[in-house]
């Protein structure tokens, strides 16, 4: 009888663990918030300890079901040594992590490597040795940032939004080489303006994009001749929303050039995104 109860406890524990794991995966699958993970390295190393490797595999498994817009990998190292050495080391770390993700994640698309300050993001100003060593350790890392897709331009209005949500406004596209919208995009932009006029609690950034450029550079605006098309596309949307009654203080805009192409019809890359910065209480 004792063995029977022990077996029953083990079965129930396994069932609850599976249910909890499935619930977590389903929540991640539906998530539209940006997800990030830090991987830490030993001094001067660009390979992982067994513990950090297992944590990374767990992160890859957890995020497997996310429909990803883009994944970026930022390499860091501490500020000791020459700039060239630091830059090479941070790049090696980022490349090492990308190779692991490419091997263990079911995707043909390699994550993007992003150049960062090779000296790290934390200032090393303390004179206390133990704290100094701790700060150095925090700089020896790679940060993985996942931006999920949310390919909805007319249906997200009824959903709960969170800080970090990245919304690809797929029904809002631009004419080739210009900041102006295609005719079939205007109704969706009006719908967006009406929604944001009512949702005064949402503070957001408009991200502008272009397609088909070499090395992810920006495109030339055919009207002005300036190489800033992604910027003026984002500004066009910002200005239009302000005219329709959206408070300008809630809006930022930026051009992301051709760095984040979706890999399909080039029309899809002549687009803007809405990044929710925060939602006021």
Provide structural commentary:
By secondary structure, this protein is of the alpha/beta class. It has 2 domains: 30-148, OmpA-like domain (60s Ribosomal Protein L30, Chain: A, 2-Layer Sandwich), CATH 3.30.1330; 156-279, 2-Layer Sandwich (60s Ribosomal Protein L30, Chain: A). It has 7 helices and 8 strands, in the order αβαβαβαββαβαβαβ. It has helices at residues 2-30, 50-62, 83-104, 129-139, 186-198, 229-243, 266-269; strands spanning 35-40, 68-75, 112-114, 141-148, 166-173, 202-208, 251-255, 271-279. Strands 1-4-2-3 form a 4-stranded mixed sheet. α6 (229-243) links the parallel β6 and β7. The chain is elongated. The relative contact order is 0.13. Mean pLDDT is 78; it is low at 19-31.
Question: Radius of gyration in whole Å, from Cα?
Answer: 23 Å
CATH class designation of the largest domain: Alpha Beta
Strands of the largest sheet, in order across it?
1-4-2-3
Secondary structural class: alpha/beta
Relevant terms:
38% helix, 60s Ribosomal Protein L30, Chain: A, four-stranded mixed β-sheet, 8 strands, elongated, 7 helices, alpha/beta, 281 residues
Question: Gist?
Answer:
38% of the residues lie in helices and 19% in strands.
Indicate the topology.
Blueprint: H1 2-30, E1 35-40, H2 50-62, E2 68-75, H3 83-104, E3 112-114, H4 129-139, E4 141-148, E5 166-173, H5 186-198, E6 202-208, H6 229-243, E7 251-255, H7 266-269, E8 271-279
Parallel strand pairs: 2-3, 6-7
Antiparallel strand pairs: 1-4, 2-4, 5-8, 6-8
């Amino acid at each position: 009888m004792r063995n029977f109860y022990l077996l029953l406890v083990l079965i129930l524990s396994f069932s609850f663990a599976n249910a909890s794991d499935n619930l977590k995966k389903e929540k991640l699958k539906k998530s539209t918030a940006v997800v990030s993970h830090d991987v830490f390295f030993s001094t001067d190393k660009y390979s992982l300890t067994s513990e950090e490797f297992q944590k990374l595999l767990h992160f890859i498994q957890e995020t497997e079901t996310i429909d990803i817009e883009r994944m970026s990998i930022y390499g860091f190292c501490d500020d000791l040594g020459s700039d060239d050495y630091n830059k090479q080391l941070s790049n090696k770390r980022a490349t090492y992590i990308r190779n692991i993700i490419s091997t263990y994640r079911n995707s043909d698309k390699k994550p993007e490597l992003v150049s960062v300050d090779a000296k790290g993001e934390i200032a090393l100003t303390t004179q206390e040795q133990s704290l100094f060593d701790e700060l150095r350790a925090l700089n020896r890392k790679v940060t993985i940032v996942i931006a999920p897709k949310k390919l909805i331009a007319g249906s997200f209005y009824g959903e709960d939004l969170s800080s970090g949500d990245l919304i690809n406004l797929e029904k809002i596209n631009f004419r080739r080489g210009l900041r102006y919208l295609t005719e079939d995009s205007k109704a969706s932009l009006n719908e967006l303006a009406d929604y944001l006029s009512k949702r005064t609690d949402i503070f957001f950034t408009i991200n502008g994009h272009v397609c088909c450029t070499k090395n992810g550079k920006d495109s030339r605006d055919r009207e002005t001749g300036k190489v800033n098309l992604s910027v003026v596309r984002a500004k066009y949307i910002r200005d239009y929303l302000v005219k329709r009654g959206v408070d300008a203080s809630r809006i930022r805009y930026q051009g992301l050039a051709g760095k984040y192409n979706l890999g399909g019809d080039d029309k899809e890359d002549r687009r803007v995104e809405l990044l929710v910065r925060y939602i006021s209480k």
